[in-house]
Design a protein that fits this description.
Helix content: 25-40%
Strand order of the largest sheet: 3-2-1-4-5-6-7
Order of helices and strands: EHEEHHHEHEHEHEHEHEHEHEHEHEHH
Largest sheet: 7 strands, parallel
């Protein structure tokens, strides 16, 4: 344990927490571990999950109390019949699969869409009453110095707001993503977005401090909400765990030029179309491509294209399997978001893999591209087919000449570990 000047009792409100896996879930698992290591006591209010979900449960700090509550009827059913079961299961986690039963899938999506439009801020608001009641009981039974809410899901901030009004506690609101994204990633109406913004504007005034996963999110909030103060906001980035990478063997196939992509694809936000076009035109006999993650509407075209001969799509994999894929890649492929608001958290995990990165960027102010350039961790190309072809060909040339690894800085970067980020949270707590 690394002692701090003042250890605190913290209640974390996090809908996304193991065994439910998402970037924000992993963020707060590691930040919880870091805060406990720094001497704080961290308990968690989260959702209950079916017993077949087991991912990362063994990594939750043993001294932390985990309070689980009913997520609401819709997601109770979704998780109960989900195909994501346990470590090593590569199938998709959300609801019925379209190819299994098209009618069930369409009904599922119809119900989801209706409920998502009715609830504010979204469908996850079905967790609100259970979370408030449980949170009230928890805070009545034992005192907490600090309340931390993790968004997303957005509903966590509303739970924290309710508890803040009932108890004399300091509140840190953490944003992994902005509530209203500059690029529309779902079908929220203008009226719904206005209601969400009014709701957020109100609760922002009651937060004692705000932490954000990227500088772009902070810049967006300072622009959209003029009453916010810069000195009450702190950027706490995602990170990587050096110990997790050390646990897994480094055993690459020396005769294969392996390009690996871990993460999600989203049309209009993190679109792989130009990458896939470039791969189709490259003639590199040693090249193999591995993709792991939720690639949504790109899955079927990928499986049916000629690329299927060289691309191995692994579906959704558990976090440790993802780390293993990254560590044994020749090159890691990274696609930046279409906006400069945030940095996909996967880039920090890529840093921990200590492999050269091909960063594909679509805008001039891309924070991910700047990070790769400053760290000399790989090369950056624009999101255009010819540029991507050039980038892959250049990295292939370095690999064939045996100078790939010596061409880049592949050392540990201590400033991007989860413990470093936890120390920043601890410093924020000390300011309250």
């Amino acid at each position: 344990m690394i002692p701090t000047n003042s250890s605190k009792r913290i209640l974390l409100i996090a809908y996304n927490y193991p065994p439910l896996i998402s970037p924000q879930s992993i963020r707060w698992l590691y930040l919880t571990r870091g805060l406990v290591r720094l001497g704080h006591r961290v308990d968690v209010l989260t959702i209950s999950m079916p017993g077949h979900f087991k991912d990362l449960m063994d990594m939750i700090p043993k001294d932390s109390r985990i309070y689980r509550t009913f997520p609401g009827l819709f997601y109770y059913i979704t998780y109960k019949y989900s195909r994501e079961r346990s470590r090593g299961d590569n199938r998709q986690p959300e609801g019925p699969k379209k190819s299994d039963d098209d009618l069930i899938f369409r009904i599922y999506m119809l119900v989801h869409g209706i409920l998502n439009r009715l609830f504010v801020p979204d469908i996850y608001a079905e967790w609100l009453p259970q979370a408030l009641i449980k949170g009230y009981c928890i805070m009545r039974s034992r005192p907490y110095d600090v309340l931390i809410s993790s968004s997303e899901q957005r509903i966590c901030h509303l739970v924290a707001y309710g508890l803040k009004r009932l108890f004399p506690v300091r509140w840190i609101a953490d944003y992994g993503d902005p509530w209203i994204y500059p690029v529309a990633t779902n079908r929220e109406s203008k009226l719904k977005r206005k209601i969400i913004k009014l709701t957020e504007s109100h609760i922002l005034r009651h937060m004692d401090f705000i932490t954000l996963a990227a500088e772009g999110i902070k810049r967006l909030y300072l622009k959209d909400y003029s009453f916010l103060k810069d000195d009450k906001m702190e950027v706490v980035t995602q990170g990587y765990d050096p110990e997790a990478f050390e646990l897994l063997p480094y055993d690459p196939k020396g005769d294969e030029f392996v390009l690996t992509y871990c993460g999600s694809f989203y049309k209009d936000l993190r679109d792989p179309s130009n990458l896939l076009s470039a791969l189709r035109e490259l003639d590199i006999k040693e090249m193999r491509v591995k993709i792991a993650g939720r690639i949504n509407e790109f899955e079927r075209p990928l499986r049916e294209s000629p690329l299927a001969k060289i691309v191995e799509y692994k579906g959704f994999v558990d976090p440790m399997s993802s780390i293993g894929l990254q560590k044994n890649a020749t090159i890691l492929i990274f696609i930046s978001n279409a906006t400069d608001t945030q940095i996909p958290g996967k880039i920090y995990e890529y840093l921990g893999a200590k492999r050269p990165i091909l960063c594909i960027t679509g805008n001039e102010r891309d924070l991910s591209a700047r990070l790769i350039k400053d760290a000399n961790r790989g090369i950056v190309v624009k999101d255009r087919k010819e540029d991507i072809k050039y980038g892959i060909s250049e990295l292939y040339r370095l690999w064939k000449e045996g100078v790939l690894e010596s061409s880049f800085n592949l050392r540990d970067l201590e400033g991007f570990t989860w413990l470093h980020s936890a120390k920043k949270i601890s410093e924020v707590i000390d300011k309250l």
